[in-house]
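Morning F.,

Quick status update on the modeling queue. The single chain you submitted on Monday has been processed. Sequence for confirmation:
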Amino acid sequence: MPRKSVRFYTYVSSPYGMKVHGYLLYKQIPFELVYVNPIHPEKDLPMGRAVPVLEIDGEVRADSSPIGIWLDEAFPDTPQLMPDDPTAAASVHSADTWITDVLIPAIFYRVHPRLTAPGNLPRTIADTLRLGYCVDYTTPGGLPFGLRYLWPLFINRAGFIRRMVAPLASSASAEAYRATVLSALDRKLRDRDFIAETNTPSLADIGAWALIAGPYLLGLRGMDDYIAHANVLRWMRTLEPAVRGGTGLPPLVPALLNR
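C-alpha cells below.
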C-alpha cells in the first residue's frame, strides 16, 4: 500500500499546532511541515484562516483534538491517542478539556507583558522579543519589517487571546497562575503514570507534553519551571523518547531555534 501524503500547516508558536505536531511525532507518521504566513494565513492554508490544519491525501481537517482522533482513524497501525474503552475515553476527553481551558491560557498569559509581575517585566520583554524572532525565522519571507519586534503585542491584540486571558487578569500574575496550573497537573500525576485514566499515553498526554516542552525549546525564559514539580518532571521524562520524533521527522522546534 502506498504511503499516505500528509501535510501539516501551522505557526511555530501556535499551542494548538504544538499539540498536533506532538501527535504526528508520537505516531511516527512521515509528514511535510508547512509554516504559514501569520499575517495572511489564508494564502497558505488549504482551508480557513486558523491553524493547525492537516491534509491527508487531499482531505483537510482543522482543530487540534479532532485532528488527533482523525489520525487514529487514518493510521490504525500506529500508537493510538484515544482508548477503545468508553470510560477511559471519557477520561481523556475530560483531561483534554482541562488542557484547552487551563493549560493553553497559561501559556498565552505567560507571554503577555501587561500581566506579568513587575519584577519579571524585563524577562517577559526578552521572551516576547525571542518569540518574535522565532516567528520571523519560520515565516516564509519573514515578517514585515519591524513587526518581529512588535509581534507579541500584535498577536496579543487578537480577539480570541484577549477573551482567553481576560478572566485570568484579576486572579494572579502570569507567573503565579502558571505555577498554580503546574501544581494542579502535578497533583493529577501523583498516583498515576498518565494524565487520564489510561495505561498508555493518550491524546491528553501528548498534547500537554508538547505544550510544556515547546515554549522551553523555543528558548523562552522560565519555561523550565516544570522541573520543580516532581510528578510532572517524571511524566515529561517518561514521554520524551516517544514524542521527540524519529530520524527524518520535522522536530517540534526547528534545530536552529532549539535551545
